[in-house]
Specification:
Length: 231
């Protein structure tokens, strides 16, 4: 690997274990709102339906076609609708509770802290994230990650969402970094890797699930600890 001066990380599914934390939050919500009494037979049924709607709405949000406030409750309204429940108020309450509960969860991907302990002594570290600003800062604080990062760049602050080149340009300017000396590490080939490359940065694809893809990735890792050998 060439010498870098600045390292940028994605947060969700790269450092913070989004899937495990979300699952715990949904379990809390299923219990708090007694969703079984509404005819939702299992937590798995609820989560499966939620992901279908959330994926569609998040893509619309990323494209700037809907606002985050709408996304927050609409994904749950659509999920409840799959079970014959028409209750916007309940959807809004669940949406608020999810945003409150989920960032309190603290599960991290394996070897996150060991890797950051190593890297932050050698490089300035930064976060670039599409997640909601208030939620992401809470996640970082609660999971003891905040101290590793000099700047946290959110799409809301930048005015652009990954993979738009604008958010990477904003981040580079903010920290006074040259793209040729900067490296992005993230789990999404489109939002993290392609976006960074378009901005002139190198990138490492973090692929813990060893998901098959069409290649075109200069560097790929399956465990964060590999960064301590590469950098």
């Amino acid at each position: 690997m060439k010498v870098y001066r600045h390292l940028f990380f994605d947060l969700d599914r790269t450092l913070w274990d989004f899937d495990k934390n979300a699952r715990e939050a949904f379990a809390d919500i299923y219990s708090i709102f007694k969703l079984k009494d509404y005819g939702i037979g299992s937590l798995d049924d609820f989560v499966k339906s939620y992901h279908l709607h959330n994926d569609v709405l998040w893509e619309l949000y990323r494209q700037g076609k809907i606002e985050k406030e709408y996304l927050r409750w609409k994904r749950f309204e659509d999920t409840l609708g799959d079970f014959g429940i028409s209750n916007k108020q309940l959807a809004m309450e669940i949406g608020h509770e999810y945003i409150t509960i989920s960032p309190q969860k603290v599960n991290l991907l394996p070897n996150t802290l060991i890797t950051l302990d190593y890297l932050h002594l050698r490089y300035p570290l930064y976060i670039i994230t599409n997640g909601f600003e208030e939620v992401q800062f809470t996640k970082l604080a609660n999971s003891n990650l905040a101290g590793y990062f000099q700047f946290v760049i959110t799409s809301e602050a930048a005015g652009f969402k990954k993979p738009d080149q604008g958010i990477f340009n904003y981040a580079l300017k903010l920290v006074n970094a040259d793209p040729s000396e900067s490296l992005m590490i993230g789990d999404d080939l489109i939002t993290d890797i392609s976006g960074a490359v378009q901005a002139g940065m190198d990138a490492i694809f973090f692929n813990p699930g060893q998901i098959a893809h069409n290649g075109g990735v200069a560097h790929e890792i399956f465990d964060l600890i590999e960064l301590t050998k590469m950098l």
